[in-house]
UniProtKB/TrEMBL annotation:
The keyword Isomerase applies. PANTHER family: GLUCOSE-6-PHOSPHATE ISOMERASE (PTHR11469). GO terms for molecular function: carbohydrate derivative binding; glucose-6-phosphate isomerase activity; monosaccharide binding. It comes from the Bacteria. This is Glucose-6-phosphate isomerase. Belongs to the GPI family. It holds the Pfam family PGI. SUPFAM superfamilies: SIS domain (SSF53697). It is an enzyme of class 5 (isomerase).
């Protein structure tokens, strides 16, 4: 029997509140760093030696995970139970990368086979584009692919493409149009040779205003170029759900499908990320990413929190949010390739757990998802780290690092290479945040320390490691949702603004709103 309880009603949570808070510096100096490593799958390791933990706290967090039946809930989700209570849907993004998993049957369809079938169709399509069997409408080979989508139909795929473009041969260059700002579409379209460009229209719902406006923008801009024998629809494929209005449009060169059980922000391992990544790098690279994600998913099934990186990461996040009252957290990848990964995690985390009601729609009285932000190191160090070190708020830090660079090109300067400098900075920051530095004479030079950090690291940012990193965070967010008793899979909070924007455009807004709109007309 699985129970769903609000956090504050749990005995283990009440017990957690009474525990003395362990010091970050004590943990950091007392232990052998490697003792606080956990295998996170895909060649990744999660290290928590710069977190404020001790044995007593770990036991209390384990009790919380057990009482809230977090792993049982994950198993329930994997089995195809309706876990998206707001929209009354299953939650099946794990199935897109778990071809060994149990079948999930819905209204007679085997959904594991359905996702696998789409993946195979994508691989075949990508191969035909790469070999030149499918060309553009003027018989020219396709060299560029442009994804048109927004939110989950943009952020994850874009972050993953940027993360891999240094390491793998780019069979096609990829670009993205997301914002309804006409400058976004114009800049991308003008940078493309349309005869050699394939557009991927991605919208699960098929109703997103920005994406439909951008599709129209591409159609109009292409028409304006007046290219002889050019047919833009022969340059456009679609990724959508079978129930969306776009699914019925047979003008696309090809259509690939997901379904309502894959949430936008969890859709990078479905056709939403699969089409662009397979076209850009080849289906085998996308396959590697899925393997890494599946490894992280399987590590996440461990009951013991010291063997389950995503679960411990989630519990420490809840501890920092609800016991230490820290309201934000920073994602700090020491890898330029992960430049857009924090932006993807912002949607993943804040759209999932930015909630004030529980999974049954009842108000809750405790804090939920934190504010997320981040930039790659060392750029962030010269930007917002001042506040992280000496600001009045403590912000837990999530560092990500790699032993080797992706390009392998490096030079020594002052007796060390750039990669070595990058990683020396990464470790220096973790130590500075944890230990601080006392200066009683000049208080502006005093660092209190005690600022907790975690580190996820691997040898290199490969497709497999990236898949595991993506899944680690998806699972962390899911576990935190279970602990807070939220539904992490709907996003009603984004609807009000959409409705009001439509009211404004159709002249139905209130007088004040209209006056404000007129200011900017
Ligand atoms: O793929 P669609 O249906 O166009 O939705 C795009 C995005 O819009 C949202 O529904 C709301 O912003 C996201 O959750 C989603 O990723």
């Amino acid at each position: 029997m699985i129970n769903f309880h609000d956090l504050h009603t749990l005995k283990s949570f009440q017990a957690l509140k009474t525990l003395p808070i362990p010091s970050v510096a004590d943990n950091f100096t007392a232990i052998h760093v490697e003792e606080q490593n956990i295998d996170a799958g895909g060649g990744l390791t999660y290290n928590y030696s710069a977190k404020g933990v001790n044995e007593e706290l770990l036991e209390a967090l384990q009790a919380l995970a057990d009482e809230q039946q977090v792993i049982d809930k994950y198993e329930l989700l994997l089995s195809g139970e309706m876990m998206n209570t707001g929209e009354k849907r299953k939650v099946l993004h794990h199935l897109t990368r778990a071809q060994q998993a149990n079948d999930v049957i819905h209204e007679g369809t085997n959904l594991r086979q359905f996702y696998h079938h789409e993946q195979k169709r994508i691989a075949e399509f990508a191969q035909r584009i790469h070999t030149g069997e499918i060309t553009g409408s003027t018989d020219k080979k396709i060299t560029t692919v442009v994804q048109v989508g927004i939110g989950g139909s943009d952020l994850g795929p874009r972050a993953l493409y940027l993360a891999l473009q240094n390491l793998y041969l780019n069979k096609l260059e990829a670009k993205f149009i997301s914002n309804v700002d006409p400058d976004d579409a114009t800049a991308i379209i003008e940078s493309c040779d349309l005869e050699r460009t394939l557009f991927i229209l991605v919208s699960k719902s098929g109703t997103t205003q920005e994406t439909l406006a951008n599709q129209n923008f591409v159609l109009q801009a292409a028409k304006k170029q007046n290219i002889l024998h050019y047919d833009v629809m022969k340059h456009m494929v679609c990724v959508t759900s079978q129930t969306s209005p776009l699914a019925k449009d047979d003008r696309y060169l090809a259509s690939f499908f997901i379904d309502d059980f894959i949430g936008g922000r969890y859709s990078s391992t479905s056709a939403v990320g699969g089409v662009i990544l397979s076209l850009a790098f080849g289906a085998e690279v996308f396959e590697e990413l899925l393997i890494g994600a599946a490894e992280a998913d399987s590590q996440a099934r461990e009951q013991s929190i010291t063997e389950n990186a995503a679960l411990l990461d989630a519990l420490l996040g809840v501890y920092e949010r609800n016991i230490k009252n820290y309201a934000a957290t920073a994602i700090l990848p020491y890898s330029q390739a992960l430049s857009r990964f924090p932006a993807h995690l912002q949607q993943l985390d804040m759209e999932s757990n930015g909630k004030s009601v529980n999974r049954d729609g009842q108000a809750i009285s405790y804090a939920t998802g934190p504010v997320l932000f981040g930039e790659p190191g060392t750029n962030g160090q010269h930007s917002f780290y001042q506040l992280l070190h000496q600001g009045s708020d403590v912000i837990p830090l999530q560092f990500i690092g790699f032993t080797h660079s992706q390009c392998g090109v490096d030079y020594d300067y002052e007796a060390s290479s750039s990669q070595k400098k990058l990683n020396a900075n990464l470790i220096a920051q973790i130590a500075a945040f944890a230990l601080g530095h006392t200066n009683n004479e000049n208080m502006n030079k005093n660092f209190e320390g005690g600022r907790p950090a975690s580190l996820i690291y691997a040898q290199q940012l490969t497709a497999r490691a990236l898949g595991a990193l993506l899944a680690h965070y998806e699972n962390k967010v899911m576990f935190q949702g279970f602990i807070w008793n939220l539904n992490s899979f709907d996003q009603e909070g984004v609807q009000l603004g959409k409705v009001l924007a439509n009211d404004i455009l159709h002249g139905n807004a209130s007088s004040t709103v209209n006056q404000l709109f007129q200011i900017i007309q």
